[in-house]
Specification:
It is built from 13 helices and 13 strands. By secondary structure, it is an alpha/beta fold. It has 2 domains: about 230 residues, 3-Layer(aba) Sandwich (Aspartate Aminotransferase, domain 2), CATH 3.40.640; about 130 residues, Aspartate Aminotransferase, domain 1 (Alpha-Beta Complex). It binds pyridoxal-5'-phosphate (PLP). Pyridoxal-5'-phosphate binds next to α3 and α4.
Length: about 375
């Protein structure tokens, strides 16, 4: 049954208020549109958000990860441990520095890197770890940093999805080593494109600033030197103004996301989908910012594949996504020797996961509609 009278529900949509739109227009009229006063204000606000730690903005959460690795001294000959269940950027940045990615399988319950398997992957060449907080759920931070301390490893936290998530009541970004956020349009806080790196001290912040803009340091009116190979990763003031308009609304955004996630658990409880064995995320209402609500499909009990399932959602006016196919099975990584069967939990998750709509302007009625559709499709194709 198609419901063409009901408006299409995308899986994500940014939430930009009119005050921010006016603010952007002011920036455009101001005469200073690239990195300038809005970035300074955004960095100051983010630093306060992260308990006063130094923060530098970037034009993406990929640039922040790469620069984080460089600040940690990662380069050719080094190994970096990470998860295969992430956006491919997480591993690509390791290759970008010339280092070698070492994948560790996920815990299927949390869908994050299984910290119980990390120590057996450590070698004398291991320099750093990039844990990913998938859908905003952090790993066990006490355990993570115990491993890092014991083996003298740097940590670059891929907190791209975890803006506003917490660990034992403290915000992600307030604690830990180097922390990387993304402000891509789909993230809980957006600057259209963008990212921020939380650093340990002013020396690291100065280095981050050099890597952000061609390795340049300026002195006085006319002095300039270039002593490291930097990139072109600075954020525009237009983007920073968008981010500044989002930050005061973040707590409210995340509260609404938690409410919608609870509605998903309620709406899927006891239905056909649950009886068929649909997989649900870990019901964490302490730490997660509920960046996404990802189910896994019991494909062996359905006479439809994932694409068909997503198509059936679309016919009912509902968008969905896939986050993410296992990174090690992409051609670039297969060419480096990775194969099926190496990380079975990440592979199964990557092959069966579907991201359902979850964004701040949705209401519980929208969630109920998605849950009904999921149950209907499971009813139709269940076997
Ligand atoms: C979004 C994302 C990135 C990359 O951020 P961009 O801003 O898109 O470059 C990296 N890792 C994870 C887990 C992400 O979700």
């Amino acid at each position: 049954m198609t419901q063409s009278s009901v408006p299409f529900l995308p899986f994500v949509r940014p939430d930009i208020d009119e005050e921010t739109i006016r603010g952007v227009a002011d920036v455009l009229r101001s005469g200073w549109i690239t990195t300038g006063p809005q970035n300074q204000a955004f960095e100051a606000a983010l630093s306060e958000f992260c308990g006063g730690r130094p923060v530098r903005t970037f034009n993406s959460g990929t640039a922040t990860l790469e620069v984080g690795l460089r600040i940690a001294g990662v380069g050719p000959g080094d190994e970096v441990i990470t998860t295969p269940a992430s956006w491919v950027a997480t591993a690509n940045v390791i290759l970008e520095t010339g280092a070698t990615p070492v994948f560790v399988d996920i815990d299927p319950r949390t869908r994050n890197i299984d910290l119980n398997l990390v120590e057996q992957a450590i070698t004398p060449r291991t320099k750093a770890m990039i844990p990913v907080y998938l859908a905003g759920l952090p790993v066990d931070m006490d355990r993570l940093y115990a491993i890092a301390r014991e083996h003298k490893l740097r940590v670059i936290e891929d907190a791209a999805q975890a803006v506003g998530s917490t660990w034992k009541g403290e915000r992600i970004g307030k604690l830990g080593d180097i922390v990387s956020f993304s402000f891509h349009a789909n993230k809980n806080l957006t600057s259209i494109e963008g990212g921020a790196l939380v650093l340990n001290n002013e020396e690291e912040a100065a280095l981050a600033q050099k890597y952000r803009l061609q390795g340049i340091t300026r002195t006085g009116f006319d002095g300039m030197d270039c002593d490291v190979l930097g990139g072109k990763y600075n954020l525009t003031d237009v983007a920073a103004r968008v981010g500044l308009g989002q930050l005061p609304r973040l707590e409210g955004f995340n509260a609404q996301r938690r409410k919608l996630a609870r509605a998903y658990f309620a709406g899927l409880a006891g239905g056909v989908a649950e009886k068929l064995g649909i997989g649900l995320p870990l019901a964490d209402f302490e730490n997660s910012n509920w960046h996404m609500f990802q189910i896994t499909l019991p494909l062996e009990k359905l006479s439809v594949d994932r694409a068909g399932f997503m198509g059936a959602l679309k016919e009912r006016g509902i968008g969905s996504g896939v986050h993410y196919p296992a990174i090690h099975l992409f051609s670039l990584y297969r060419a480096r020797g990775f194969r099926e069967g190496m990380f079975p939990h990440a592979e199964r998750f990557g092959a069966t996961t579907v991201t359902l709509p979850l964004f701040t302007q949705m209401n519980e009625g929208d969630v109920a509609r998605v849950c009904r559709a999921v149950n209907e499709i499971c009813e139709q194709y269940g076997r």
